[in-house]
Write a structure and sequence with these properties.
This protein is 20% helix and 56% strand. With 173 residues, the protein is of the alpha+beta class. The longest helix is centred in the C-terminal third of the chain and has 27 residues.
Length: 173
């Protein structure tokens, strides 16, 4: 587990992150942050599907394709600069299932540039705070440099949580 520290409003904020290396280039990552924003506020930010690319780093496009009850289909494009000037871009079509009462947003890739891309956002109220947890299991396609992708994902997942919290601050402060 990696623990990152950041100063926020005069106090230290802890982001906990774990990476599990599984066979065949599969990586399971989890990152968690404690925030003062409510489950409802964070849920509004996470489910602003058309607006995600406005505040999530390296997400260049997010489009709502379909909504049927608590099932949502999104098309997303992510791109980022890797080492040595290499640029990585990936497209995915995701099916999301919203479990609002439980604060659970599950997703899985139905089409895209990975062999496997699935996970969940979890929101949980704890005394005076909310836990924001993001879990991702990813397997690149043949030829994808999984080491570089893992390194980027480790940085990006923490940045994504901080971006969600910052967007909540922008909307609800």
């Amino acid at each position: 587990m990696t623990t990152l520290q950041r100063a926020t409003r005069g106090r230290q904020q802890t982001i906990e992150q774990t990476v599990e290396r599984l066979p065949q280039g599969v990586r399971r990552l989890a990152v968690q942050l404690r925030t003062s924003y409510s489950v409802d506020q964070l849920w509004q930010v996470l489910t602003d599907y058309e607006g995600l690319s406005n505040f999530i780093p390296n997400l260049s496009q997010s489009s709502l394709l379909e909504r049927k009850g608590n099932r949502v289909t999104l098309a997303q494009v992510g791109s980022q600069q890797l080492v040595l000037g290499l640029k990585f871009s990936a497209e995915v079509q995701l099916e999301l299932t919203e479990h609002r009462p439980e604060g659970f947003l599950q997703f899985r890739m139905t089409k895209g540039d990975f062999r496997r891309f699935e996970g969940a956002w979890r929101l949980q109220s704890v005394p005076d705070q909310t836990l924001l947890l993001y879990e991702l299991t990813v397997q690149g396609c043949l030829g994808m440099p999984i080491g570089l992708i893992e390194q980027r994902l480790r940085q990006d997942l923490s940045a994504n949580l901080l971006a969600v919290e910052s967007e909540a601050a922008r909307r609800f402060a």
